[in-house]
Predict the 3D structure of the following.
Amino acid sequence: MSKANYKIKLAVLEALSLEEVKTPTIPVEIALREAENLFLWTYEDKVILENSGLDWNRYVEDLPVRIGACRYAQIVWMKERNSQKEALKIWKREFSKAYEYKNDLVADLYFTFRKHSDVLKNLRKITERESSVDVIKDLMDICLLGKANAPILEKMKYDLRKFDIAKQKSENLLELLAKANGDTLDDSKAKDLRDRAFTHLKEALDEIRDTGKYVFRKDLERYIGYQQIQIQEEKIIPHYN
């Protein structure tokens, strides 16, 4: 149902201007549960709220659809965020292994070609690079350098398969880096749509709450139901702003 609600609201969410979009200031799950409780609370006051100018169909009847859309957008965003975090964790682990593998190859080549100044010159260029992205290129360049000097290495009975492994590690790291980076978490499409869905939900909540607090400003028993609430142990606990 949440996914269906999301599809219903997608065009509306995408039409919001950047100036309108708000990032949640409370956990979204709490906001959703508050919205569900407000929906039930409001129904008891339908006539008086409508008579006070609240657009019932736009804000109250539509509230479950807005809740569903926001819930689904949150699920999509959390899935992406967790996926990127996992990819980053794997990247760090594999980078550490690849970095150590690169250093071992460099040590092998420095020793093997210690009397070949032309090869050492190219090897030094590779080892001067520092960044994580450079390690990806380093492994590929070491592979090319090793294969270009294969005859010498074969005479030394060096295992040339190590360069194929270096190439594979380079390609794997490149793929992992793309997954770990992707869109940055703060700029991802999923987060943007989650924020838009929250903004659309908040619009209805604000209208309902503002109207309810105005109408019942002299009726504390009804008034407290239109304030923002805190949810604790599955119970609704009113608090005052």
User: Anything to note?
Assistant: Confidence is low (pLDDT under 50) at residues 230-241. Residues 39 and 93 are 47 Å apart (CA to CA). The two ends are 34 Å apart (CA to CA).
